[in-house]
Design goal:
- It comes from Aegotheles bennettii.
- InterPro entries: SPACA1.
- 27% of the residues lie in helices and 35% in strands.
- It is of the alpha+beta class and 183 residues long.
- Among the domains are: 10-47, no CATH class; 51-135, Immunoglobulin-like, CATH 2.60.40.
- The strands form 3 sheets. The protein has a 5-stranded mixed β-sheet with strand order 4-11-10-7-8, with no helix packed on it. Strands 1-2-3 form a 3-stranded antiparallel β-sheet, with no helix packed on it. Strands 5-6-9 form a 3-stranded antiparallel β-sheet, with no helix packed on it.
- Strand 7 and strand 8 form a beta hairpin.
Length: 183
Amino acid sequence: GLNASVSTKLEFGVCTVTCGIGFQEVLLTSGCPGTETKCIVRVEECRGPVDCGWGKPISEGFASVKMSCISVPPENRFKYVSKTLFPNKTAHILPVDSAIMEACRDTHSVAFQCETQENGTIIASVKYRVCARTEMQTVKSRRVESGQTRRTKTDAILVMMVITVIIMIVGVIFAMIFMVLRW
């Protein structure tokens, strides 16, 4: 156990997040068992700035997008408020109280925001942009085009590597034959 007669000094580790809610270690810097100079006393929640900016969806399909609110276990202790954002207009609150929100792709791009609340206070907020179906088709065709050029470059590099290896092997074989004949 810990030596009770030694004065205890605590050090707080780095928070696991740069925004919203996360965890940090609380370390004891003196009085640890054995020869340990630091030991973990507990892990506790920590908070960063509320605004987490623009997030990346957890899954994207051609027809829909799944987005995640900022949370830590147990998720059911928080309240989640999802909104549709409009430029120069009031946000429209959606009837979703879940850490995961799914939105269908529309004919135009839409921005969503999910607020994580605890006891009526916003502790984290993240925004998502959901591209329209037509934009997804454009992005997909660009990926296919760039994928073909990338594949061509990769193939050329592989061919050059194989040729280089073959030349090296032939050189080593000639060197070995030369050494055997010289003896």
